[in-house]
Fold this sequence. Notes:
By secondary structure, the chain is mostly helical. It has a domain at 1-75 and 87-134. 68% of the residues lie in helices and 0% in strands.
Amino acid sequence: MDDPFKNHLFAILSSNGNSRTAHAQISAYEGPRDAQIDFILSQVEHLLQVGASAAARVSKTKLSLSICPTCSSPAQEPVTSNENSGGPPSPSSTSRPRDDVENELQQVKNQMRDVARVCKAMAVGDLKQKLTTPVQGKLMNELKQDLNSVVDNMNSLSSEVMRISSEIGIQGQLGGQVSAYGAEGAWREMVDNLNTMAATVTQQVRSVSETTRALATGDLTMAICTEANGEWLDLKVTINSLLERLRLFADEILRITLEVGVEGRFGGQVEVPDMEGTWEQLTNNINRMVANLTVQLRSISFVIHRVGLGHFDEMVDVQAWGEMLSTKLVVSEMVTRLRHLCSELIRVTQEIGREGRLGGQAHVEGFGGTWAELVDGVNEMTTNLTNQLRATTLVMKGVASGDCSKTLEPVATGELRELELATNGIVLQFQSLSNGAKRAVLEGKTIAGTVGTGEGSWS
C-alpha cells in the first residue's frame, strides 16, 4: 500500500483484535490530514480506548477469580455450595461478571470491525457501506450516526461532483453548480471551491467562445477581459495577442488594397512586425504580389506612354505570368505592329512626297479595325494620286509632243479636280491655237480672227 492512511488502518486491523496492544504499539498517524481523516482517526482512537478499558476489566476479573479470597492462595476447583453458607462462591455466581465483561469486549470488537470495514470502504471509494452493528450507549450511537452521516455527505458530494464534471467535461454544459445542503466546515469549503472553479471555467470558456465567434464573423474589436491565472492566463494572452496581430494585419491589407485598387498608388508594402509561420508567408506573398504588379504595370505604362509620344523602340520586358503575361504579349505585339505600320507609312510617304516615286503601297498584314481602315485609306490615296498624276503627265507629254487630242477624264475631286480642269483647259487652248494656225495658213488670214478669245501669252 502506498497510502499512509490505509497503512495506518491496516496496522490497526492487523493487531489481532488486541485493542490494548494496538493502542500501545502502533505509532501515531503522520500522513496528510483533512477534516474527514481527523474525524475517522478520533473515532478509531475512541474505540481503541474503549477496547483497552474492556480488556483491562477482563484481565482484572480473571485475576480475582484465580486467587482465593480468604487465604490469598491459588484457588482450587470451585466447589458447589450455597451462596448464603459463607463458603467460596459458586461457579454460577462467579462466572456472571466475567461473561458480562467478555460480552462487552466482544461487542466493542464487533463495533471496531464494523467501523474499520466502513472506513476501509471509504478509503477505496466505496460509499455504499454503513455501520450496521447494533450499538448501545449515547456515545456509540453518536459515533454510528456521525460516521453514517459522513458516508451520506460524501456520497451526495461525489454524486454532485460527478454530475458537474459530466456536464462540463463531457456534455459541454456550462453554468452548473454543486448542490450540497447542510454541508459545513471542510465539506462547505470543498463545495464552495468546486462551485468557484465551475463558475470561473464557465466565465472563461464563454468569454473565449464569444471572442472567437466575433473573430469568425470578422469583428476584430473583441478581446478577452475576464480575470485568469495559470494556463488560462496564457490562453487569454495568446488569443488577445492573436486578435491584435490580426487587427493590425487587416488594417495593413485594407490600406494596401485601397492604395492599389482604388487610389491607383503603387509601390506600397504591408508592414506587420513579429509575424511568423503562415501569417509571415501571407504577408510576404501579398508584398510580392504588390511589388510584381507595380513593376509590371509601370513597365506597361512606360511603353504605352512612349507609343503615345511616337516612340516604338521600347518593349515590356518584365517577368509576368497568367493574364499579366497575356497583357504583356498584347502590348508588345501592338508595339511591333505599330512600328511596322509606321515604317510602311513613312516609306510610302517618302517615296511619293520626297522621292516622287508613285505606285507604292503600304504592306501590313494581320491588321483589323481602324488600323486596317487606315492602311486601306493610305493605299487608296496613293493609288488615286498615282493614277491622276500619271494621267496628267501623259496628257502633258502629248501636248508637249504636239498631240492635243488627249484630255483627262473627270474623276477627281477637290483641288485635283481643279488641276484636272486646268490641264484640260490648256489642252483645249492648244487645240484651238493649233486649228486656227492651220486655217490661217490655208486661208491667208490672221490667227487672232480664228482662234477665239485667247488671253495672256496665248493672246
